[in-house]
Amino acid sequence: MATVLLDVSASSQQWFQNALKEMGDAKHVRFLYTEEQKYKTEIFKVLYLAKFLKLMGEKGRRIDVDKVACKTVMDELEANATWTGSSACDDPHIFAMVALRSARYIFTDEHRISKCRKCMSPVKNVMCTFKTIRSESVYKKHRSRIFKA
Known about the structure:
Layout: E1 2-6, H1 14-25, E2 29-34, H2 37-44, H3 47-58, E3 62-65, H4 67-78, H5 81-84, H6 92-100, E4 105-107, H7 112-120, E5 131-133, H8 136-147
Parallel strand pairs: 1-2, 1-4, 2-3, 4-5
């Protein structure tokens, strides 16, 4: 059973929309979500993602990350010298969610998340164990593992 995190940066990509439909139909895929303000604001700017994550919550396929705990980890990251020293590290909510409720795959269109993962791995490895899915070809490469029951 795979747990994935959806980043809004990929929302306009057709491959992502197709993958989201596939994952939505698969019973063994779970989705991370948090009410923490930064993530919630981003998601609600993309109405179809907000509706999708609400539906996954109703179906019991959403893993909710506590917003206070998420904010605490975000604050810790933003006080970390390695984090602040890297221009690639600007999505603390993504890394906080993964640290608190592990996601194996992050669907994104940003290369910076991978760059940040690389520099943060020696510091906080628990939040850097994910694979980034940034294209249809990468999705196809990992698809069988995402859908494995």
